[in-house]
Specification:
Structural class: alpha/beta
Oligomer: single chain
Shape: elongated
Radius of gyration: 19 Å
Order of helices and strands: EEHHEEHHHHE
């Protein structure tokens, strides 16, 4: 995934965006400022709606970045380098330098992102409840509630057991762990799960991929890279 604009780095990982991000960001901005916020909290000025919408969009993509950092930091902790994190049209992607050495590591890397998104959903939901009880700002409550919902959807959508989503990698790790052979599950073993994966979605999709995998480009024809699992004698 090519970065159009470098934003900086976190834990040595280059962070950037692809210009495609602006398309989906504009969609969320207009959806919030013109539709959701006025409908859920009528009576505020147009400027108020646009300001809160902008804050909401920035906060959401910060949440997507946190999702990617979840994958990346777990990968680093397990000795796998991360080339970059890029936010793009459909969400974000963390590009890993190599494959995991065992299914446990694969599972932990894959599940880390959705866990972060669930935590973010809980945090935003709690803030919405507290704001409603203490401050009473309807526009702020609506914005926080929207962020909670989007993070929850991000977590659930990415757990669909289909490549190249996080759920597909969780499924691959489970099959790999259960396999009696010394190879990672072939793509054919995931064909049924893959057939349910949409080619694209209006919801941001996030996850991790290997630098050599086609969907890092990105491409809708994605596949799990084959790997050999070390045997007991190390070969």
């Amino acid at each position: 995934m090519r970065q159009s604009l470098r934003l900086g780095s976190i834990s040595g990982i280059p962070i950037g965006i692809n210009w495609g991000l602006l398309v989906i960001a504009a969609f969320y901005l207009v959806n919030l400022a013109v539709g959701i916020l006025p409908a859920s909290s009528p009576g505020a000025s147009a400027l108020t709606y646009w300001v809160f919408a902008l804050v909401g969009v920035v906060a959401f993509f910060a949440s997507v970045l946190a999702h990617e950092l979840g994958h990346s930091l777990v990968a680093q902790r397990n000795g796998i380098g991360v080339q970059a994190i890029t936010l793009w049209l459909l969400g974000g992607v963390a590009v890993l330098e190599r494959e995991a050495d065992d299914p446990g590591v694969e599972f932990r890397i894959a599940i880390a992102g959705p866990i972060v998104s669930v935590v973010m959903a809980i945090v935003f939901g709690a803030l919405a409840w507290a704001t409603s009880a203490v401050v009473g700002s309807a526009v702020l409550v609506a914005t926080l509630g929207y962020l909670a919902l989007l993070n929850l959807v991000l977590a659930v959508f990415n757990m669909i057991p289909a490549a190249p989503l996080d759920g597909g990698r969780v499924l691959a790790a489970a099959l790999w762990n259960a396999a009696t052979t010394d190879t990672r599950p072939e793509p054919a073993q995931l064909e049924q799960a893959r057939s349910s994966a949409p080619a694209s979605s209006s919801w941001p999709a996030s996850g991790s991929c290997l630098a050599k995998e086609p969907w890092c480009l990105p491409s809708s024809d994605s596949s799990f890279a084959r790997r050999r699992v070390p045997s007991a004698d190390g070969h």
